Amino acid sequence: MKTGIESSQCSAPGNNCLPTRTIRTFLADDLPLLIALLARIVSKDKRVAIVGSATDGPKALCNASTLEPDLVITDLHMPGLDGAEVTRRLKQCPNPPIVFIVTSDDTPEARARCMAAGADAFLVKAANLVPQLLAAIQESFFDDLEPNDAEPKHIHAEWRTTMVLKPVPFFLAGLLLLSGCAHYPVNKSLTATNPRAGYRFQNSVPQTNSDDLMLVLAFSGGGTRASVLSYGVLQELAKTEVGPRSNEHRLLDDVETISSVSGGSFTAAYYALWGDRIFSDYESRFLKKHVQTGLLLRTLAPWNLARLASPRYCSSDLAAEYYDHLLFKGATFGDLAPRGGRPFLVINATDLAIGARFEFTQDQFDLLSSDLSKFSVARAVAASAAFPPFLGPVVLKNYSAEHPAPEPEFIESVLSNPKASSRLKNLALQERSYVDGDRRKFIHLVDGGITDILGLRGPAERAIELEEPGIKPAASIKLPRRLAIIIVDASAERDYGWDSKDRTLGLGTVMGSVAQVTGNRYSFETIELFKEVSARLDREREAARLQVGDSQSAEIELYVVELHFSQLAAQSDRRFFNSVPTSLQLPSSTVDHLEQLARTELRNNSEFRRLVADLQGGQLQARNQ
């Protein structure tokens, strides 16, 4: 062993004490509370001396390399570098330490990766963590136990049994402590707003491959079913070539905005963050992974059950951690901002208190005096997919009372204008509610599909604001000649047969159906609203043309591509689709079938074919699979 392990002498020769050696130990976990808990557990072995700790991968690697401990105990999933990479690099040192990886990720892939990196033990955060950890220490440093020759061997056995059993009450106490201290990540405050900074549509770098085209994608909710269909649409857009031969490109590269809710937000956020990488690893990372089972297992783990007992930590917080591990790798909206050429992402949730759409943009966060750039993309997706009562609300802190700012001019101008429409006034009142930070100190967000099943209301509401008579389009604003929106509606029709039975419905049945029934009815109104708004944009373009004296027609060509998969033409396809459950995992064969349906339906949609033909100057050129 290393020279840092030194023998300690028994107080008197011939007594029954057990000679010990010092095991210099370094701990790493992203939760300081868990570091303290691990320290108390391993300190039950009297040989252990804690020499340092770290809460992220780079610090763990740096400090452990400097301190040269005998034992490193690290979490697997940490910011910066994960535990497997820290292990791999530590094992390359001239005098490498023993490394234990302690994690709640008990998947075969995680275990294989850690062991391949050189970990000496892979331990799962579960009810038996204490005996696991102490037994691993004893096994790894067994050669350091040197009982006196006269000492009976049963003393060793007694010592081992005592070391395993005595810490169990402490572990339970630690779980109780953990339940009281667990807290959701708090969004950061913003002392001053800057319209030229932050994740806003006007600050994004749009794609400009097709002149005078604004292409918007709207991804609906519907669990993994929605995630797969939206992914299939992206696949088809990537295979569809448009533009003149001098500027032939993928139609996918013309997408300017993606607005999403619930299951569609997984695909939208992954593409906005990672781009074309989605086509190589999204299936294996998410679509064909047992996400629901993995989330359930994490929920049932005693380690997490204790956290879930806290009033400030819920199932959506745990889900956000899992989604971050699977897909987003610690990314924030600040990471989205610099990605020029990618679509602008609008993730939508529902404000539970006022029943209104809440979008994750800096414009929305300005009302809370909060900084979106430091907010986790995974938590936004978790809020968008937090369907009650199975997943609790994601909580945001409202800092508007702590950092008061003038009320946005839009609110006052609309509410004081008797000619403003009722819809516009309703939007202004919703925004005003966030400015009242004394009354609304915290915002609770749930599934975005409750207020916007199609993910379409965001684009429509932005155009509604053009109704305000005081807002006039500047001559420099370039309005699109073509406005196209592709609506991916993953909602399924259900025949419950309620009207044929003389019985009451259970609470679970009612709760699981109200949002779907309301959302399906609401979706028709949303599409009609969008069409009305497009007519208003026509008038705005005409006004801009007259202002600058342009003689060319300013009419906007509108393309509304509606993909309602519950209304598929083929009865067999329709029956299959409507049988797919709304869950977070599906069989691989179902995923493949849904992807094919999405590609085929988009490719054969008459409105989509009209759009592609117009972009090709009248010639439809699409590379079909």
Largest sheet properties? 8 strands, mixed
Helicity, in percent? 40-55%
Q: Say how many strands there are.
A: 15
Q: What would you call the structural class?
A: alpha/beta
Q: Look at the structure and give the mean pLDDT.
A: 80
Shape annotation: globular
Which stretches are poorly predicted, pLDDT < 50 over at least 5 residues? 1-19, 146-168, 469-477, 618-625
- What is the number of helical segments per DSSP (H or I, 4+ residues)? 23
- Percentage of residues in strands: 5-15%
Distance between the termini: 62 Å
Radius of gyration: 29 Å
Written description of the protein model:
- By secondary structure, the chain is an alpha/beta fold.
- Helix content is 43%, strand content 13%.
- The chain is built from 23 helices and 15 strands.
- The strands form 3 sheets. Strands 6, 9, 10, 11, 12, 13, 14 and 15 form an 8-stranded mixed beta sheet that branches. Strands 2-1-3-4-5 form a 5-stranded parallel beta sheet, sandwiched between helices. The chain has a two-stranded antiparallel sheet with strand order 7-8.
- Helix 1 links the parallel strand 1 and strand 2.
- The protein is globular and about 85 Å long.
- It starts with 22 loop residues before the first strand and ends in a 10-residue tail after the last helix.
- Residues 1-19, 146-168, 469-477 and 618-625 have low confidence and may be disordered.
Quick structural summary:
43% of the residues lie in helices and 13% in strands.
Question: Keywords, please?
Answer:
globular; 43% helix; disordered N terminus; five-stranded parallel β-sheet; 625 residues; alpha/beta
